[in-house]
Write a structure and sequence with these properties.
Blueprint lengths: L2 H17 L12 H17 L3 H10 L4 H8 L3 H16 L9
Helix pairs in contact: 1-2, 4-5
Length: 101
Amino acid sequence: MHSNERNFTLAHEIGHIVLHPEQNHIDFRRSDQEKDIKESEANVFAYELMPLPKFIRAYKQHNGDVVSVAEEFFVPEKCVSRRVNFLKKQILDEKIYDFIG
């Protein structure tokens, strides 16, 4: 497993431990929707752990191409899109500098 993929997978599993401490195993009684929510939460936890400077550098190097950035970090495209949208909102709120321009 490539190191970026391994790191994302580890971060995802740590997300489950941090976000869902009461569940240390797969509970087959949960609905598919609930499982999807828990998986999405763990994914969000993992992509938030991507170092911001490295993320911004990759975003610039790939000219904002979400697919390329997702491939570089071995994360789902929707995670990259969510992070970019969050960062754009932070720029509008003047909480961070404009990394896009």
